[in-house]
């Protein structure tokens, strides 16, 4: 009986240590970019169309950051720089996550999409379960659009 209890105790200790190591690993990874800055040069594609769009697009890009409400950190917006003085319209990509990953860990991806003429917005909400932070991001962007960049 003592041997079984000792074995169970060791199993519990090992499980706790593994859980703590996993939490530590996730914490370390959460601060690192999830998309490497040079991914457009490193990723190999299987076709000419994919190869074309893997490179940076023709637009010079800009970044705008502003504090978001609640605990959502910042709104992070990458966009074609010409938008600041142009009346042209651009498609929108709203980055919504629910996996604990913040928008700030994807700067290379946001810039890449903006270089192809997209406005890309995200925030630092790590779990958009209710959709409130995504709605707030869109409302923020619509408000910014009214005041002109």
N to C succession of SSEs: HHHEEEHEH
Q: Tally of extended strands?
A: 4
Enumerate the spans where pLDDT stays under 50 for 5 or more consecutive residues. none
Structural class designation = alpha+beta
Q: Which whole number gives the mean pLDDT?
A: 87
The largest sheet, given as strand count, sense and whether it forms a barrel, is:
4 strands, mixed
- Strand order within the widest beta sheet: 1-2-4-3
Separation of termini? 73 Å
Kindly describe this structure.
The structure is a single chain. The protein is α+β, with helices and mostly antiparallel strands and 149 residues long. The protein contains five helices and four strands, in the order H-H-H-E-E-E-H-E-H. Strands 1-2-4-3 form a four-stranded mixed sheet. Helix 4 links the parallel strand 3 and strand 4. The model has no long low-confidence stretch (mean pLDDT 87).
